[in-house]
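JOB MANIFEST
job_type = single_chain_structure
chain_count = 1
residues = 253
[input]
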Amino acid sequence: MKQLGEAFEFSAIGVVRTPFKDRFGVPRQPGLAAQAKGVIKINPDPDLKTALRSLEEFTHIWIVFVFHDHGGKGWKPSIRPPRLGGNRKVGVLASRSPHRPNPIGLSAVVVEKIDFDAEGGPEIHIGGVDLVDGTPVLDIKPYIAYADSIPHASAGWASAPIPRYPVIFSDEAENEILKRDPQGAQNLRALIVDVMELDPRPAFQKRQNPVTDSASWGQRYGIDVLGNDVKYELRESGLYVYDIQDLKKQKPQ
């Protein structure tokens, strides 16, 4: 790839730990899945710990991160946003695609608590996360509503409402959730609903098999949620979860 301009070198100040072990199923934007919890693990550097001082006074923060796992080589000047069903191209700088001249992202998340004295470095517990587990963090900035919120801003091609679909559980799936999260501490059921009601499939699968198309009903898929293989199929009523299995216990094919 031809050099675009002056180069700069950055070092990660930490890493994000999330329920999403791969790109499939990660919410497309922050805040769409409120039950998606994560932890920003800050490097064990005394200066970084000092740099976090007073951050606990804010309810939200911006995470500046690296798209380290987008699977592409180089960048693409035009992309097909999933929100448009892959049917229209836009310039990559008019999107939030990871395939950018510099693979840097920005997410606004909820701060639930900060553990300054956690073993191995401070931890910022966050909610509404939309990042793959292991995402490197370059910077953190406080979210300031009077400067960062623009209520009347236009969302351009992304202004259409985000479709959400009903998520239905079989009795077997409900029982498996109770076995895996008996006290509800992980909010496993709520997280599954949050992630699945957005139809987490890649854009090409949504185009080929729309949830609302009767020809798609019966198509089956699986998604990893907190180490659980959530198996579901498309039905007239929505996304039907028919089974949940422990990924660690599954034998190699």
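[summary]
The chain has five helices and twelve strands.
The radius of gyration is 20 Å.
exit_status = 0
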